[in-house]
């Protein structure tokens, strides 16, 4: 119980030790270590000043943008039929994020523009994660596929150009969790990934 | 309020008045019993471990891993299995809902110069749509869609899900035509992410 009950004194009455002691005991019970709780705080009485920086959620700021919590870039092309990192002057990799706490949730947004001039080609894009920043594993739920239009429609065209955003969450991983954007070309035709924005936000409370 | 003043002072030689004691104690007690606020705390003195889990933000998530095959002949919105979130929201908040997935048309292209079969998606909160896509034509056999919407909700039980709708759409003015959709359709992986911003 974090509330204090005060024993009042009255004029003309005998001021017994019990009266004083009861009040002091109540203070002791209410204000001891770990006793102060939400009952003691005024409704909406707290603001950002009292919270430690990063105690609620975190983004990462770094002089090395490719080691930070967010990045952007453009100009990636590949003909690889297996997943390769989207390289926009550096691999599109963010982290490390500390996702080790049971309540921590890393929300990742990856926006990009896919394009191919190869008729019928398919572009695969996905997010992958790593606990060491080196070896990455797929997050299969994040895989997005884009087919180039094949020439069987009245409005057939060879090229495909489309933007998309992958929104997902990651949790239960290590204190050094990295996320990377990867892409591949299904048929080995030339594809490009442009206008990339990759952003991670770690919600802690 | 963090600034408290003793309202009664005792001076040497005074006759002790119990009200002096009572009033001074009341000043402290009333502050402590629910009156503490930001002025009482050193900045920034509250650390992560002292904050209740999900006090400010909760992340809700639903993944549609299994293939979902809606009925393309239905002319109503159909709920996408796997992208469904329901539960109790303990307080008023804003929810940011994001849905994304990959989908595939089955069968051969049946479009004409006049029209073709199309699909659209939307995010629904308690039956009200908060984000809707345009119509994706069947000329792109396999494609991906992402949607995002935000809405304030009250405390209580709410449901959030994604839906899909099929129609044959005219190229000229994007109006529906009467013909039924005949091709099959699969929604592959899809995921619904809801950020519950409580504060």
Main features:
heterodimer, A: 205 residues, mainly beta, 6-stranded antiparallel sheet, 7% helix, B: 199 residues, 5-stranded antiparallel sheet, 1 helix, 9 strands
Number of helices in the DSSP assignment of chain A = 1
Net shape of chain B: rod-shaped
Let me know the largest β-sheet of chain B. Answer: 5 strands, antiparallel
Low-pLDDT stretches of chain A are 61-67
Helix content class of chain A: under 10%
Distance between the termini of chain B: 22 Å
Task: Give unreliable regions of chain B as ranges.
Answer: none
Share in β-strands of chain B: over 45%
Principal-axes shape call of chain A: rod-shaped
- Number of extended strands of chain B: 9
Quaternary organisation of the protein chains: heterodimer
Radius of gyration of chain B: 29 Å
Structural class of the helices, strands and pairings of chain B? mainly beta
Q: Encode the helix/strand succession of chain B as letters.
A: HEEEEEEEEE
> What order do the helices and strands of chain A follow?
HEEEEEEEEEEEE
Proportion of helical residues of chain B: under 10%
> What's the rounded overall pLDDT mean of chain A?
86
Report on the architecture of this protein.
The complex is a heterodimer of chains A (205) and B (199). Chain A has 205 residues and is mainly beta. Chain A has one helix and twelve strands. In chain A, strands 1, 2, 3, 6, 10 and 12 form a six-stranded antiparallel sheet that branches. In chain A, strands 4, 5, 7, 8, 9 and 11 form a six-stranded antiparallel sheet that branches. In chain A, β7 and β8 form a beta hairpin. Chain A is rod-shaped and about 100 Å long. By secondary structure, chain B is mostly beta strands. Chain B contains one helix and nine strands; from the N terminus they run αβββββββββ. The longest helix of chain B has 15 residues. The mean pLDDT of chain B is 91. At the A-B interface, α1, β9 and β10 of A face α1, β1, β3, β7 and β9 of B.
């Amino acid at each position: 119980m974090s509330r204090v009950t005060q024993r009042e004194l009255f004029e003309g009455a005998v001021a017994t030790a019990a009266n004083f002691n009861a009040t002091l005991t109540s203070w002791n019970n209410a204000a001891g270590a770990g006793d102060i709780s939400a009952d003691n705080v005024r409704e909406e009485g707290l603001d950002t000043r009292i919270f430690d920086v990063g105690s609620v959620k975190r983004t990462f700021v770094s002089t090395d943008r490719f080691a930070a919590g967010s990045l952007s870039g453009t100009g990636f092309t590949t003909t690889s039929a297996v997943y390769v990192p989207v390289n926009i002057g550096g691999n599109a990799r963010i982290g490390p994020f500390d996702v080790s706490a049971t309540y921590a949730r890393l929300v990742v947004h990856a926006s990009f523009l896919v394009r191919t001039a190869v008729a019928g080609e398919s572009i695969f894009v996905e997010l992958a994660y790593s606990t060491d920043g080196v070896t990455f594993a797929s997050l299969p739920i994040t895989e997005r596929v884009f087919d180039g239009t094949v020439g069987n429609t009245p409005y057939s065209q060879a090229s495909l150009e489309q933007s998309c955003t992958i929104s997902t969450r990651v949790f239960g991983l290590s204190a050094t969790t990295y996320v990377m954007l990867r892409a591949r070309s299904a048929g080995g035709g030339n594809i490009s990934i442009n206008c990339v924005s990759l952003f991670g936000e770690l919600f802690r409370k | 309020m963090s600034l408290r003043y003793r309202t009664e002072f005792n001076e040497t030689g005074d006759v002790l008045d119990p009200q002096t004691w009572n009033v001074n104690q009341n000043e402290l007690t009333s502050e402590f019993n629910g009156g503490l606020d930001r002025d009482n705390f050193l900045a920034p003195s509250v650390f992560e471990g002292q904050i209740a889990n999900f006090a400010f933000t909760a992340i809700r998530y639903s993944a549609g891993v299994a293939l979902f095959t809606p009925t393309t002949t239905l002319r109503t919105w159909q709920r996408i299995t796997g992208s469904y979130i329901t539960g109790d929201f303990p307080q008023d908040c804003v929810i940011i809902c994001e849905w994304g997935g990959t989908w595939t048309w089955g069968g051969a292209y049946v479009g004409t110069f006049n029209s073709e079969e199309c699909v659209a998606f939307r995010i629904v909160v308690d039956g009200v749509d908060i984000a809707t896509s345009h119509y994706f034509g069947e000329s792109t056999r396999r494609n991906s869609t992402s949607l995002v919407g935000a809405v304030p909700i009250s405390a209580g039980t709410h449901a959030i899900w994604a839906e899909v709708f099929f129609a044959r759409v005219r190229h000229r003015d994007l109006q529906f035509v009467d013909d039924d959709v005949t091709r099959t359709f699969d929604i592959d992986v899809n995921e619904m992410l809801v950020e519950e911003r409580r504060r």
